[in-house]
């Protein structure tokens, strides 16, 4: 028996539009964590949604839609990076209201932006999305050993970058 796509029925509107409306901000934040730039994140999300929209008939489980979009975002970002390899890293964040972001958040975001794209994606997948290492490897399209290497190198860099902040706020050690 052929199973129907999760997008085949809807009470009032287009189910894909409803999904995008409900999850857009979360997926945009995901894109920002991967790219480090809100404009790149928006472009990345729109490209991923376009790809997933074309393949929506293959998505059968309601919970799988977001995973498809996230995977498309990671793969698109890594593909762009491979093509260009001209990412320009800056030492400062864009202007933000002082009350909105504390020093630790600023330094963490700056440190994340300083990581190579695959290491950044591995950290976001593992520690923001809370995926197991095997799934991180699958999302990145690499072996588990390679995913672990990306994570280890990224965490070493983040610890070095954030050590002065940890000492300033009393968490040094």
Task: Describe this structure as you would to a colleague.
With 173 residues, this protein is mainly α. The protein is built from seven helices and no strands. The protein has helices at 15-35, 38-54, 64-84, 103-114, 117-128, 133-140, 144-168. The termini are far apart. Residues 96-101 and 166-173 have low confidence and may be disordered.
How many strand units? 0
- Could you say which structural class the secondary elements and strand pairing correspond to? mainly alpha
Low-confidence runs of at least 5 consecutive residues = 96-101, 166-173
Q: What is the chain-wise order of helices and strands?
A: HHHHHHH
Query: Tell me, what's the shape?
Result: globular
Layout of secondary structure:
Elements: H1 15-35, H2 38-54, H3 64-84, H4 103-114, H5 117-128, H6 133-140, H7 144-168
In short:
The protein has 173 residues and is mainly alpha-helical.
Structural features:
173 residues; mainly alpha; 7 helices; 0% strand
């Amino acid at each position: 028996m052929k199973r129907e796509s999760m997008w085949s029925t809807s009470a009032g509107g287009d189910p894909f539009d409803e999904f995008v409306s409900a999850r857009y901000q979360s997926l945009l934040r995901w894109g920002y964590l991967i790219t480090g730039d809100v404009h790149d994140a928006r472009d990345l999300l729109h490209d991923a949604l376009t790809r997933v929209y074309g393949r929506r008939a293959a998505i059968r489980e309601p919970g799988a839609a977001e995973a498809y979009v996230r995977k498309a975002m990671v793969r698109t970002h890594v593909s762009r990076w491979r093509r260009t390899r001209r990412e320009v890293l800056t030492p400062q964040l864009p202007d933000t209201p002082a009350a909105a972001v504390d020093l630790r958040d600023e330094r963490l975001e700056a440190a994340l932006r300083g990581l190579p794209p695959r290491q950044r994606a591995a950290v976001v997948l593992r520690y923001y999305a809370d995926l197991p290492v095997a799934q991180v490897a699958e999302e990145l399209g690499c072996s588990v050993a390679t995913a672990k290497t990306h994570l280890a190198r990224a965490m070493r860099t983040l610890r070095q970058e954030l050590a002065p902040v940890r000492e300033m706020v009393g968490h040094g050690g």
